Amino acid sequence: MKDIINISQAAAMLGLNIQTLRRWDISGELSAKRDASGRLFYYQSDLEDFLKANSKYFLKTAEKWARAKNAPDLPNGFYCPDRSVFKARLSRFESDLKNNPLWQKNYSLIVAIAGEIGNNSFDHNLGNWPDVLGIFFGYILKERTVILADRGQGILATLRRVAPDLTTHQGALKAAFTEILSGRAPENRGNGLKFVKQVVQDNDFSLFFQSGDATLLLNNKNKDEALSLNTGDYFLRGCFAKLNF
């Protein structure tokens, strides 16, 4: 069964070592199952529930998948191999938000941001995924957090097709969030990441975004300031986004 994984696979997914999982099984922090031979195994759904209840490991799993040289497998509930799967998960996300009175006023904006970032990954890597196609998409409502990530070509590589003068990841990220570049077909859908920037800064949201070695933090507190870009602690070939709402 695809839903069953062994302890080595579970450790890789969570970015932990096997000894830690064995200790957690004994302590009850993350209980494993045992087959007829006594070998430990897990159901992917159990790992998904654990990650949704532990934001630290949720974030760690997404980061590890996005930045690792050889990507570990993801729990099925967070992996969207194509746009149709992403669209279905996005619809479920919308329903979860809409049915909660906390977000009934702005759920459509939150979904729009997540949809734009996810679709941006599919639009600009179509047919050119370097290794693992698709995206990571997951959320923890109690933490008001959404994470999207891909192992694509990154903002610089995709923008240089229409703006060959771009040479740095910082310059590319700034252009993606502030400039309308002719020749980018997806721009006709709402100016892509510029739409994301406007919605985040017009509301009580916060967005961390990284591509390459460039990082950007957007919120309504820096709405009137010049776009501030920094250098990340590590290099990320594709894109990583963390939205708090």
List the helices and strands and how they pair.
Elements: E1 4-6, H1 7-14, H2 18-27, E2 33-34, E3 40-43, H3 44-53, H4 55-67, E4 79-80, H5 83-98, H6 107-125, E5 135-140, E6 145-150, H7 155-159, H8 169-178, H9 192-202, E7 206-219, E8 229-244
Shape: globular
The tally of domains stands at: 2
For this structure, the CATH topology of the largest domain is: Heat Shock Protein 90
Give the mean pLDDT. 92
Name the helicity range. 40-55%
> What is the strand tally?
8
Largest sheet composition: 5 strands, antiparallel
So how many helices?
Answer: 9
Strand content: 15-25%
How do the strands of the widest beta sheet line up side by side?
A: 4-5-6-8-7
Output the radius of gyration.
19 Å
Order of helices and strands: EHHEEHHEHHEEHHHEE
SS-derived structural category:
alpha+beta
Q: What's the CATH architecture name of the largest domain?
A: 2-Layer Sandwich
Report the end-to-end length measured between terminal Cα atoms.
36 Å
CATH class division of the largest domain: Alpha Beta
User: Uncertain spans, ≥5 residues at pLDDT below 50?
Assistant: 186-190
